[in-house]
Amino acid sequence: MSTTTFFPSELRRLLDDQASVVTHRQLREAGISGRVIERASRGWARLTRGIYLIGTATWHSAVYAGLLSGAGDGVVGGRAAAYLHGVLRDPPKSVTIWVPTPRHDFYVGEWRVRFRRGHRRGTREPRRSPLEESLLDMASDGHELEIVDAVARALADRRTTPSRLIQALDQRERQRHSKVVREMCDASSSGIESALEWLFLRNVIRRHGLPEPPRQVSTAPGRVDMLYDDANLVVELDGMRDHADWSHDMFRDNDHVLDADRRTMRYGFRAANAQACRAASQIRDALRIHSGAATFQRCRACP
User: Fold this and answer.
1) Are 165 and 171 contacting, i.e. CB atoms less than 8 angstroms apart?
2) Which residues lie closer than 8 Å to 248 by C-beta, 6 or more apart?
């Protein structure tokens, strides 16, 4: 028999809401005696003092365990908050909780609950730092590509605005990756939706003085990343996770040839970084062949 069978319905709903995490105080407030708790808890996971996991550990269990450990003052921050806001694809391996007083870290299954002393305003449920603060906290110890991807998704999905992000940035004296965050806010109207698109714009297009094409253009065969209409040239940027069904892309490329005699050039992360000069030269040559001219400037890394 489940150890929660004897729980009142309100307590079972609370467990559902808190991803199977509950505090000793909540159990007592629900009318469960200390003796019953002592006996039943032998089959529970004691996460930290006064906090139990009654069920299977999940990432959200780690979130609620951290918040409940903060005694009502905790706020989810950093990557964990960014994931809750919907701008990270995968839940992080650690859950950061901002608290006013020191706490000891602990684990919930495979996820580490990590406490940081400080204040963050909480919003929504579960309580998390505002998206702008979460992104900047991520930037403080994260890789540029990770920050670019999260900021691009936040702006593209209209979960925040450039002005709100810049305002949060201006309130900090020092901020890692502040330059790239400002550049992305400036370019937010350009249709940038991913780290790959931002890197390609910066390293391939702008660094080599190529004409900037419209982005995220709707065509009869489907939406394309970039379109040089005068040259009948489509440029597609392929991140591996976004292109699991390559046959769909191939059919769309073929439709472009049949419908409008358009050629498609495809690039990935390597072209946007290690081989940016080669990619820029190819686009330059394609534009010159099919439209007769293209601006181009050699960068310091060009052979």
Assistant:
1) no
2) none
Check whether the bond before 126 is cis (ω within 30° of 0): yes
For residues 98 and 15, membership in a common domain is answered with yes
pTM listed for this prediction: 0.81
Query: Would you say residue 123 lies in a domain?
Result: no
Q: Residue 242 has what DSSP assignment?
A: G
Residue at 300 is within a domain: no
Pairing of strands 215-219, 222-228: antiparallel
Label each residue of 150-172 as H, E or C. HHHHHHHCCCCCHHHHHHHHHCC
Distance between CA atoms of 107 and 113, rounded to whole angstroms? 6
Q: What is the pLDDT of residues 33-47, one digit of tens each?
A: 999 888 888 889 999
In-domain check, residue 124: no
Of 67, 83, 117, which residue sits at a domain end?
A: 117
- Angle value at C-alpha 173, between 171 and 176, nearest 5 degrees: 100
Residue 95 has φ and ψ, to the nearest 5°, of: -115, 115
Report the distance separating Cα 44 and Cα 58, nearest Å: 15
In this structure, is residue 283 part of a structural domain? Answer: yes
Closest CA to 63 of 55, 74, 48: 74
For 110-154, the pLDDT digits (tens) are 999 999 999 999 999 999 999 999 999 999 988 888 898 899 899
